[in-house]
Design goal:
By secondary structure, the protein is of the alpha/beta class. It is built from 20 helices and 29 strands.
Length: 743
């Protein structure tokens, strides 16, 4: 070994670090073979050996991170032990700004950088090899050796002048895809990229300008000025629902387009944004590029490339759109910034709202956070001057805010076994009688959240999770909403074997729909929940039906709370306003207030005034009082005062360790070991271990430790040292959640 390495002229062996989409703590090193020595640069996509496998990765270089985020350097490895890079792939390189962002997200969340890369480049790195041919045209004449079967002849006969997809060709010829494949292998068919109309037409920045006056005009000017500065800044655009926030941030987008730069808009639920898309299209005369988990492989690759070459001018997307390789990003917008959905809760646990700000900072571009009910973090940043703050206090065009009233469920309860109080039923009836639309909101899918035996009290629980099974009556099953467990509703109680003794307790929207069918027999009812309306097309259709007034009563879960504009909707009834306030989560009040305000904001967005009715058993609760008075600033100030003394976010920093194992003992022992090694010091505190909020999830037992520090102390170095100190067995997994959304 030693001898052979002495034979090599050491200095000429150029090394490169290659980040692989795998959970290694750092990029792995390789040597550059002679053939590639001049052509490999950071960002290039390469194939390297790993054990007996070949892996695709990206040539990496250390980017600079703030000191507290910088991970320890990888161990030194002698060049002689390194293996050579196999080949460089013909794919657009990963730009420097994106590599830097990937390093940042990894360092901040303590995720292995390769896992962030894997998430960022899911479609990109699969490579072009084996990519489906876009369309078929005639290639060479059939060779003499190829037997021309009837189906092969049919395929050639069906082929026209313009390229045809496999599906189209196979249908027209009445032959299977295998026949087409065979002809392609023989060279008789040739694949070409089909010319498709570009989805990335340049929006017309001057199209159909709304007339902005007063506060709207001021806010739009401010945002345009930020874009024109071409420098990093963060602005909070706060305004009640219907005040014109979207209209105003589209002004900033227009400014960004006029400057020739790219704009990114993050929306909480991109699949649901058909209305947003229409509005954008009307405003700019072109569609934006769209990015979310449901777009196809081909669209992904096109969009990725179009971002990299700058031809995608506006991208609207879900959180993962942050990882697109923008060539010249000039604006980053986060709409509904308070939404918890921006936090990814699995794999790399990052908050897209916060990382959007990092992305903007690395790009030297302004970020705009938009909300009617900003999170306490964001409000605090605005109050302390870290963010600029623009406020739109009233609805556009004189539309008034809906009047919010409480229905005290202790005083006027619904008849036994029902969930709509007489007051709410009457209000819905008179709304429908006026020819207006009403909405009933309940954030719970299925028929009933709990099924129990009337004889023995047995509760139907998930065998894999600490949760009750939810009855879905239409499908005649009990489902766990945390794992995929589904079982038919049993005829007899599994505990005492009594027959027909199982009873549904509490309402889900299926049950509210049943009750509404009886209370409002004439009404045309539309149910909107993620399991009844799935995918963008179905959602768009549902929304269109509502706009066309083909629906009288909408019954929905949180889907209906999104930023929809339903001009004929004047009444929103919240079936259980207290739902979500239970439990020990410190953020429950803030979140309930945000959700219910958002739902209520759907009412009365046009001429007819709106009304919101909240059914509550706790009408004195601060959340209910805030919803009635509309004084969110006072509510949030009160929240702040509760969190400030204990250094709870945003006044301190928080990280959770979730220790999980299939064995309860293993999880507990590991959690205790981590607890014993807990960091300490001035301004540092560790709480737990205690069973995590879902103590068993998908068959894994979960314990939680919470690290809380004062704001001036970064949690990452503390966590890194802590985790390095406690060796764990492979039966135990520790997930680190920096800035958990609930605590
Ligand atoms: P928000 O995003 O704050 O809920 P929107 O931007 O959706 O508010 O505005 C609510 C409605 O009012 C939309 O239909 C919007 O087109 C309209 N609107 C807002 N401002 C103007 C304006 N200056 N001129 C014309 N229409 C406006
Ligand atoms: Zn379960």
């Amino acid at each position: 070994m030693v001898q052979s390495s002495l034979l090599e002229p050491l200095p000429t062996r150029k090394r490169v670090a290659v980040l692989l989409p795998l959970p290694f703590p750092y990029p792995l090193e390789y040597v550059v073979p002679a053939g590639l020595s001049d052509s490999l640069a950071p960002g290039d996509v390469v194939v390297v050996p790993l054990g007996a496998r070949r892996e695709t990765g990206v040539v990496w270089e250390q980017t600079t991170l703030p000191p507290e985020l910088t991970p320890p350097p990888p161990p030194e490895i002698a060049s002689t032990r390194l293996r050579p890079v196999k080949e460089k792939l013909d794919l657009p390189p990963v730009p420097r700004a994106l590599r830097q962002f990937i390093d940042w997200v990894a360092a901040y969340t303590l995720a292995p950088p390769g896992m962030v890369l894997a998430m960022a480049l899911r479609s990109h790195m699969r490579g072009t090899q084996g990519a489906p041919a876009a369309g078929w045209v005639r290639g060479e004449d059939p060779p003499a050796t190829l037997r021309m079967t009837p189906s092969r002849k049919a395929v050639l006969g069906a082929l026209g002048e313009t390229p045809m997809t496999t599906a189209a060709l196979s249908e027209k010829a009445g032959a299977g895809a295998a026949v087409i494949r065979g002809l392609a292998d023989a060279g008789v068919l040739r694949s070409v990229l089909m010319a498709a109309p570009s989805p990335f037409a340049v929006p017309d920045a001057g199209h159909r300008l709304p007339v902005l006056e007063g506060e709207q005009d001021f806010a739009a000017r401010e945002l345009r000025a930020r874009v024109a500065e071409r420098a990093f800044s963060v602005t909070l655009l706060e305004g009640v629902t219907g005040s014109g926030k979207t209209e105003i941030y589209l002004e900033a987008v227009a400014e960004c387009l006029a400057a020739g730069r790219q704009a990114l808009v993050l929306l909480p639920e991109i699949a649901l944004s058909a209305q947003w898309m229409d509005r954008f299209t009307k405003r700019f005369g072109a569609r934006p590029a769209v990015w979310h988990s449901e777009i196809g492989q081909r669209a992904r690759r096109l969009t990725w490339n179009a971002c990299a070459d700058g031809s995608a001018r506006v991208v609207v997307g879900a959180r993962s759109a942050l990882f697109l390789p923008f060539r010249d990003p000039g604006l980053v917008i986060v709409d509904e910034e308070h939404e918890a959905i921006f936090k990814q809760e699995e794999g790399v646990m990052y908050n897209a709202r916060d990382m959007a700000i990092v992305r903007a900072r690395l790009a030297g571009a302004p970020a705009v956070l938009v909300s009617a009910t900003p999170s306490l973090e964001t409000l605090n940043n605005a109050e302390t001057g870290r963010y600029r703050h623009l406020v739109l206090p009233s609805r556009h065009g004189g539309a008034s805010m809906p009047e919010t009233r409480l229905i005290d469920m202790r005083e006027a309860p619904p008849p036994k076994g029902q969930f709509l109080s007489p007051v709410l039923v009457e209000a819905v009836k008179s709304t429908l009688a006026r020819g207006e639309q009403a909405m009933l909101f309940l954030n719970r899918r299925g028929y009933a959240p709990l099924t129990l035996c009337r004889k023995c009290g047995h509760r139907m629980e998930c065998p894999n999770c600490t949760s009750w099974l939810v009855e879905h009556r239409k499908r005649r099953v009990l489902c766990c909403h945390y794992c995929e467990y589904v079982t038919p509703v049993p005829e007899t109680c599994p505990a005492c074997e009594a027959e027909h003794s199982l009873t549904a307790i509490g309402p889900g929207i299926e049950r509210i729909t049943e009750e509404s069918g009886e209370a409002f027999p004439e009404a045309r009812i539309l149910v909107m929940a993620s399991d009844t309306i799935s995918g963008p097309a179905a959602t768009a259709e549902a929304v269109a039906k509502i706009s066309r007034r083909e629906v009288d009563l909408i019954i929905g879960t949180q889907i209906v709370a999104k930023g929809w504009h339903f001009p004929h909707l004047t009444l929103v009834g919240v079936v259980d306003a207290d739902l979500g306030l239970g439990g020990a989560d410190l953020r429950a009040g803030e979140r309930t207030m945000q959700l219910l305000h958002q739902v209520g904001g759907r009412a009365g967005r046009a001429e007819a005034p709106g009304e919101v009715l909240l059914q509550s058993f706790a009408p004195d609760h601060p959340v209910m009082q805030a919803l009635i008075s509309g004084d969110f600033a006072a509510f949030m100030a009160e929240e702040a005062e509760q969190r400030r003394p204990g250094f709870w976010p945003p006044f301190g920093r928080l990280a959770a360790l979730i220790i999980s194992s299939e064995s309860a003992d293993a999880a507990q022992n590991a959690a205790r070991a981590l607890g014993r090694a807990a960091p300490y010091g001035e301004g540092i505190e560790v709480m737990g271990p205690v069973p995590a909020p879902l103590a068993i999830l998908r068959g894994r037992h979960r314990q939680r430790l919470l690290l809380r520090t004062q704001r001036t102390i970064a949690v990452q170095p503390i966590l890194r040292r802590w985790l390095a100190e406690v060796p764990l067995t492979s039966a135990v997994r520790v997930d680190v959640d920096v800035d958990p959304v609930s605590f």
